[in-house]
# Entry
Amino acid sequence: MVFLTQLAKEELLTQLNHGVILMLLGMGTVFVFLTLLVFVTKGLSALVIKFESKRPASAPSAGAVSTIAAPASEADIAAAIAVAWAKANE
# Structure
């Protein structure tokens, strides 16, 4: 193993330059890949939204029950709890 103090100054500077170049190449590669990933993801998302909007909406089946309800008051909630309690204890 060679320690930094044992290297000649020119060789040390050469190795440091190579290290910096390697670091910048690595960081640049990661940056380019992540930028490309963002644009590909946005493009695929737009493509899916485009094709999803062209698909006709499926009609609900005959047995489906609408789950949209008006906000319940506390009295309605208490009544529902009482009914559920009564059914559970039959």
Residues 8-55 form one domain.
